[in-house]
Amino acid sequence: MIEDRYLSRLRQLTTGGRRRILGLVGAPGAGKSTLSQAILDAFPGKVVIVPMDGFHLANVELARLGRASRKGAEDTFDSAGYVALLRRLREQRDDETVYAPTFRREIEEPIANAIPVAPDTPLVITEGNYLLFEHGHWKGVRPLLDEVWYVNVDSALRQQRLVSRHMSFGRDEDAAKQWVEHTDEVNARLIDATRDRADVQFSWSS
User: Fold this and answer.
1) pLDDT tens digits, residue range 69-82?
2) Is this structure's pTM higher than 0.85?
């Protein structure tokens, strides 16, 4: 359940007659996608979700670069492409539909041009891990966002969710736990260091 104080901020973001972009950031398993969907449900017809995960490099490219074993790290994304899309969404013309990529966990691959964003959509939500990084192409993300919310959750619960997620997509329990420990948690520590740059610290109500 989204508390009234957050809903009030969201109402402001969906009114006023101009495009707003809200960034949701947090460690892997924090619930960014769940919050995105909850906002979409609360404001039907006014929100489109554009995930940063659509800019994962393809598995074949990760293998070529020797980065497949740490997929999800900051250098396993097309960060320049992500910034370019956010800029297009910020500057979108009235006669233009912008198409964004998505990420399909069942095949562990990005899918291009899967999410249409109409020019009259008042609020675009983009959710991902590295929205508040201040180096490389990532530093171009924050200036294109109207607000950034950091999604907080109990660390043990977050890790449990990640293990379950990886198992649901084919890893056995030991492999899932190893991936969480050696990949997801390495990224989580980097992401957590950016939390103070967010406009809002979001926590679910009980």
Assistant:
1) 888 889 999 999 99
2) yes
